[in-house]
Amino acid sequence: MLETLESYAAPVTLAELGEATALHVNTLREHLDGLEGDGRVRRRRAVPSGRGRPAWLYEAVVATPGRRAMEHAGLATALAAAIHRTSADPRADAIEAGVAWGRELVGGTTDDTTDGTTAGTTDDSVGGVRVGGDGGDPEGRRRVVALLDELGFAPEIDSTVSDVRLTRCPLLDAARRYPDVVCGVHLGIVRGALQTWGRPAEGAELLAFSEPGACRLRLASASLEGSAS
Question: Where does the record place the region Disordered (predicted)?
């Protein structure tokens, strides 16, 4: 919801936000009140026009990024632009680069244990979000979500076995400008991690900007059915 609000150039009403998110205004109001209390959203009255009390307008409070974060984002955008401009197949090259990065990120792990938990445990959670459940490989799913959480994607487990909602993008501006490259790298990271853990990875797909405020990572069930011997 916050990212949806951030996508607007001007403050919006509850009705407009409800149309964009398909959420009931009462649900929106409750979440917005919490975000306002955290200092992440501000509200003000619209300019009066006619009878009745003017509507509330909501806008995201955008924090000013630190200099180092701005430098990293600028470098990522520049690299994405270069790949987009010079590569014959930017998405394929980006995925390949992401695969190498994903392997490096998890290269020190094994398939038997992760942070003291064993494969097949039934009490898997990340940040209080349960990622185990109906079949498949809860440990594999947990490890994918843990990696994405560490990288800043704020993942949420969907009601299905294989889908993960990514509610934040650490390189959102670059991804909007060059989704073939940036989103390709992010998909490659997941595939590279799955390969390193001995799981099939080609079925994993990233549906960029597939819904308001989130992308969707689809992990084929084969990717979560255990490790290679």
Answer: 106-136
